[in-house]
Structure formats: structure tokens, C-alpha cells
Amino acid sequence: MSSLKFAPTGRVADLLREGQSLWLDSISRHLMDSGELDRLINETGVRGITSNPTIFEKAINGSSDYDADIVSLSAQGLSASEIIRTLMVRDVQRACDFFRPVYDSSKTLDGFVSIEVNPLLAHETEASISEARTLHRMVDRPNLLIKIPGTPEGIPAIRQLISEGISVNVTLLFSPEAYRQSAQAYIDGLTAYHAAGKDPSRIRSVASLFISRLDTLIDKKLDALSGGSSDPSVSKKAKELRGKAGIANTRIVYELFGSLFSSSDFKALAKAGAAVQRPLWASTGTKDPAYSDTLYVDNLIGPDTVNTVPLETLRAFADHGTVARTIDRFTKGAPLEDPHRILDALASLGISLEAAYNQLITEGVQSFNKSFESLIESTERKIASKKGA
């Protein structure tokens, strides 16, 4: 457990002066046991941590660190899925304890750890609510965020959980409209919570917009146009738009954030102590080697935001990132490109952003499902091998 030595210096700590918190998109026993997480908190300035089924699959399947517990829990009669949930809860509890000093010193702004509901429930509202309540009870830490996907079925679950006083990380958001719905669900849930005579200042939420995945998909479409069009102007425009969709989409979401949380609906809640639901930039590791390895940190810095990064991106930014407000202001003396113009330009080439958003949310849910199913299968194999030994 981290103690409040907490004297970070450097670029990650400097982000705070621009109003952005940097969280780590990784969790494992090794990270905590090795002392690395303690160093990242106290020396580098990491202020929270997120997890998902894929991250846990890599942690549990990628080492023998959990094998003894798997055998022990199996001997107690737990199923593979119950064992996985127990292992996740234990890691998240420990991580919450590491970040508790940040949570306290930041007056509950930061220091959060996220755990995701079973991804197989992404399209089941009531089952997601029930699972979220169970995880909230099992972890039993004030600095916990329950991750609920921003699917049509997830939106009412978000509203209900917030109304019950359970803090939520809305995950797998891709479109501005899905973001708007998640933010409104937070506001509606807070309104119900406050109307019941409860203090809204104790609730926190983030809305996680996935970025690099959008660029990966759109860039493939642009590459097909630039290489396959007989019109030189189309080819030229397609090449110019590579790597711009994700940042433009994010900047439009940030505009929406400003509008929604300055509305009359939220102002009354703010007077009662309610906090804004901060936008969280996720999937910010650069996937295309042609782009800067700090692309999705350098260009998305601004107040009331969180950026959650994989360890390699954290190290790259700490080494050579640039700290300046870039989410909505001029960059290095040059005018900020109009994000709406960029998305309009994509549409003029016949690229449907709506189709891309729909494809990405489907693929995102499927990817997490696959990771979770893989984790169940590997856990069952470990149990069977130990029984046969």
C-alpha cells in the first residue's frame, strides 16, 4: 500500500496545472508486488488506474502469479467465473489501497481504480446492474469506479447505479451521441440521488472515449481511397486526413462536455456540491508507428479531463511529451484545426462515421467477451491440470 511520500516531478505531474490527470491503463500483481506502482504514484505522478477484461487476461494468463490462488479457490468449490471475479476483486482492492492517499489528498477527485462488469452482460441492463452492485459490495472501497459499457442497454444501468450512489466509469464510448447519452444518464442519476435527500458530492464518474481504435479503422478506409482512386484530389485529401479522425472526434466530445455541464440541469446539482463527469481519453496508445508515440496525450490536454495510458505510452510521455493546453486552443502558434471540418471532410469522401462508431462498439464488446471467455477456459484448464496432478 502506498504511503503519501507523493512528491512527483516532471511532465506527468505538470499535466495537473492544465487540469488533466493521468491514469494508468494496466493492473497486475507484479505491478504492485514489484514496487513499480508505488513509484509511479509517488515519483511519476500517476493518479489512478483502469482495468478491463483484456488487461486481466494478460495479467492472469501471462504469469503464474495467480495459480496458487486458483487452486485454493477451486478447492473451496468456486466456479471458474467466480474465481476470476474473486481474483479481480483482490487486485482492485489492493490497487484502491495504493491510491487511497491520492484520493484523500485530492479531495476525492482522483485516486480511483476501475473494475468492469462481466462483459458478457453488455447488452443486459438488469444483469449489469446486479453485477455492479455485487462488485461494489465485494471491493468495498470508496475510490472504486464500476465500468459499464455505453451500449443502449448500458445507459439505463448507468442512470440507475448513479441514483443508488455507486460511482461509474462509462466505457467503450466512440461517438459524440453515445457520450452525450452517458453524460445525461449521469446527470439524471445524480438528480434522482439528490432528490432522495442524499449528498451528490460523494459521487464521481468518468466517461471513457476510445480514440486510437477510431483512427485505425478510418485510416484503413482512407488508405483504400488514396491507393484506389483515379481522382488525384480524392487521393490527396485522403492522405491529408490520416490520423486526424480520433483527435477531431475527441475535441467535439469535449465541446459537448462543456455544453452539458454548464446547462441549467447541472448547475443546480453543482450548487449542491456535485462534480462534473470528467471525460476520460482511453485507447491512447499509438498503434500506427508512423505517428508520434505521444500523439494522443500531447494533443488532448485540457481542464477537467483524464487520460488513461498503457505503461509504454506513460514512459514515452514522461520522457519527451509536451505539456500545454491543446484540447481546444492553438497548438505551437498554429490555429487549431476545426474538428467539425475534419469530420465533414471524411463524410465528403463517403466515409460514414456513424457506421464506424457502430462497428467499433460491436468489436469492442466482442473483444472483451473473447478475453473473458479465454480467461475462463484457461482457468478451467489450470484447475483440471492440478486435479490430475
In helices, the fraction of residues equals 55-70%
Please report the first level of CATH classification, the CATH class: Alpha Beta
Class inferred from helices and paired strands: alpha/beta
Instruction: Name the beta content range.
Output: 5-15%
Q: Which geometry do the CA atoms define?
A: globular
Work out the number of β strands: 8
Count of helical stretches: 17
Please give the alpha-carbon distance between the first and last residues: 36 Å
Low-confidence stretches: none
CATH topology (level 3) name:
TIM Barrel
Widest β-sheet, arrangement of strands: 1-8-7-6-5-4-3-2
Q: Could you report the average pLDDT, rounded to the nearest whole number?
A: 93
Could you say how many structural domains there are in total?
Answer: 1
CATH architecture: Alpha-Beta Barrel
Summarize the main sheet: 8 strands, parallel
Subcellular location: Cytoplasm
EC number: 2.2.1.2
Family: Belongs to the transaldolase family. Type 2 subfamily.
GO molecular function, one term: transaldolase activity
Structure description:
With 389 residues, this protein is an alpha/beta fold. The chain has one domain: Alpha-Beta Barrel (TIM Barrel), CATH 3.20.20. 56% of the residues lie in helices and 10% in strands. It is built from 17 helices and 8 strands. It has helices at residues 11-14, 29-33, 36-44, 53-61, 67-75, 80-105, 125-139, 154-163, 176-195, 212-228, 232-241, 245-260, 264-271, 295-298, 311-320, 339-348, 353-388; strands spanning 20-24, 48-49, 112-116, 144-149, 168-173, 205-210, 278-282, 305-309. An 8-stranded parallel sheet has the order 1-8-7-6-5-4-3-2. Helix 14 links the parallel strand 7 and strand 8 (305-309). Helix 6 packs across helix 17, helix 9 runs parallel beside helix 12 and helix 10 runs antiparallel to helix 11. The longest helix is centred in the last third of the chain and has 36 residues, at 353-388. Transaldolase is important for the balance of metabolites in the pentose-phosphate pathway. It comes from Leptospirillum ferrodiazotrophum. Pfam families: TAL_FSA.
